[in-house]
Amino acid sequence: MPTFTIHNKTIQSKANQSLFDLAEELSVAVPSSCKKQGKCKECLIEITSGSELLSPLSDKEQHLLPQYRLACQAYIEKEGEVKAESLKRSRIKIEEKGTTVSDNIVLQPAVIRKGNKVYVDDICIAETTKTLFGLAVDIGTTTVVVRLIDIENGKLMATASFENPQHFAGSNVMSRIVYDTDHGKKELKRIFTAHLSNTILSICDTPTTIFEVVIGGNTTMRDLFFGLDVFTIGQTPYKSLTEFDVEKNQKTTTSIQSNAKKMHLPIHPKALIYGLPIIGGHVGADTAACILAIQLMEEEKTIAFMDIGTNTEIVIGNKYRAITASSPSGPAFEGGEITFGMPAFDGAIENIQIESDDTINIQTINQKPPVGICGSGLIAVLGELVRTKKINKVGRFEDGSDRWYADKNKQVFINEHDINLLSQAKAANVAALQILFKEYDRTFEEIDTFYLAGGFGEHIDIEACIRIGLLPNIPVEKYKKIGNATIEGLTMALLSKPTRLALERFVKNIRQVNLESDPAFFDHFVEGCLFQKIKNHNTKNHK
Ligand code: FES
After folding, report:
1. What is the per-residue pLDDT across 111-133, written as a single tens digit (0 to 9) for each?
2. How far is the CA of 117 from the centre of ligand 1 (A)?
3. How far, in Å, from the CA of 30 to the mean position of ligand 1?
4. Does residue 399 come out as left (phi exceeding 0), alpha (psi in the -120 to 50 range) or beta?
5. Are residues 332 and 278 in the same domain?
6. How many A from CA of 345 to the centre of ligand 1?
7. Whose CA is nearest to atom 3 of ligand 1?
8. What is the DSSP letter of 310?
9. Looking at residue 87, what is its pLDDT?
10. Looking at the structure, do residues 422 and 353 belong to the same domain, yes or no?
11. Which of 245, 263, 275, 277 qualifies as a FRET site for 505, CA 20 to 30 Å off?
């Protein structure tokens, strides 16, 4: 009987078992968000030996380099041993750093020491002479970043990051909601808690002196962590249970409070676990944390904030008035559904230049041979194709070809179908920008600073984004990349209870704009599909 080995575990292969099925039997988690249908391409594995024993490439795998297969599409057909490795998520580029200002915050943590006694909200919970620690935890759908902070002096003691272990239930928020709803038993919560617990123990020798944890993430990640039912977030009107509680006057804020004992975390059992408030629906506690990081609550000038992802969150405003929206831009800019799209693994093309003699220079992650194109690489490719007029504004190749090769060996390409998908992802963001700026009655030029948050925002070429019409055509100097602003905001919330109470009040007054109900949405979307600079439609004079 043929055998399959992955991660040093071996199993005999039976008929009609894909490599994905075999990996599952070995308890090796292979990512998927398409239920093994060959659509998401997240189950990419590297065949290290025995590829000749496998079934022929399926339609869904024609683009792959010889050593790669989609685990859900490959079957062992001949006697012998097939060995494989899943692509290491640990090699993914994780943004751990924010670039703002928790250094400047006045220290007023919820946990304080009087003598040897430790108090939370005037209640003594412990006695210790050791350092008092707190944790800031940014739960991203893909990656999790943890900071260990000395809460008495604000010093960063350790940082850790890991892939969100819920990835096996799908890479996007909707698949996690479906999985959690279908499977019950809070499996996603339990798995996450186990990983977070291990990380805590690995970065802190005295975990029982961790007295507070501040949690942020999108609405689904936050609520899954606290064990709330997330079904309602996936159904219209897309609300967290905490929002319904506020609407029914059962709570005054969408923030969540618990303790370590209830949350089964290996820290002081009475430690406070605080989840930042959400702004509404898909504008979650991660955006609320970013609001702290960009100091919107103190900002006199009008600024914009954008975090581009599968869902793009946009905020426009200042300390007096702010509005927000979440735009479902889809997975294209993260490489999903793009022929050679891939996450930011080794070998992903992340930047590209086309010289005047048509020579192509590419930069890949960790200088590995090109395997595919990650999000920032896709922006760079489009930017260069537009700049050199190889595609026209509707995304068609001017020379009549159906694809363009990014590498000299002619293995990695982008085709018109890919470009079409990217134009639609872009259009969703453009429509959101147009509608929000109109609602706020400001032109793009009137924005003082345009903040770009998150890993995607950190790596994109802003000039290319302006050229292809993903970002407004304003001076490049107005854009400010702020990296992982969520972890920065969470750190600020950890170090100052008054700050997070102020945030709870502030987010209640941020109006969420429903994009789909705007009559101009479709027109903006259609215009946004074009590869041209974004038009400024809101040019009327105002005070
Ligand atoms: S699980 Fe294989 S492509 Fe989605």
Report:
1. 999 999 999 988 999 999 999 99
2. 53
3. 9
4. alpha
5. no
6. 17
7. 38
8. S
9. 62
10. yes
11. 263
pLDDT at 220: 96
Residue 204 sits in which domain range? 102-294
Residues 227 and 140 in one domain: yes
CA separation for the pair 5, 19 (Å, rounded): 10
**Which regions of the chain are under pLDDT 70?**
31-33, 41, 63, 65, 87-104, 539-543
**What pLDDT is recorded for position 91?**
38
**Nearest residue by C-alpha to atom 4 in ligand 1:** 40
Q: CB pairs under 8 A, 24+ apart, for 88-94?
A: 88/345, 89/31, 89/163, 89/167, 89/345, 90/163, 91/345, 91/346, 91/366, 92/142, 92/143, 92/163, 92/343, 92/344, 92/345, 93/344, 93/365, 93/455, 93/459, 94/143, 94/145, 94/161, 94/455
Same domain, 248 and 350: no
- Which of 340, 454, 341 has the alpha carbon at shortest distance from 94? 454
Q: Which residues line ligand 1 (CB under 6 A)?
A: 32, 34, 36, 38-43, 70, 72
Tokens of 319: 């300390």
Structure confidence at residue 28 (pLDDT): 82
Within-domain flag for 91? no
- The pick from 39, 61, 68 for probing ligand 1's pocket by mutation, whose C-beta has the most ligand atoms within 8 angstroms, reads 39
Give the CA count within 13 Å in the CB-facing half-sphere of 268: 26
Atom of ligand 1 nearest to the CA of 44: 2
Q: Which amino acid is at 107?
A: L
If asked whether residues 212 and 318 sit together in one domain, one would say no
Mutation pick for ligand 1 pocket among 22, 42, 64 (CB with most ligand atoms within 8 Å) = 42
**C-alpha distances in Å from residue 175, one per residue of 166, 180, 309, 500:** 10, 8, 16, 31
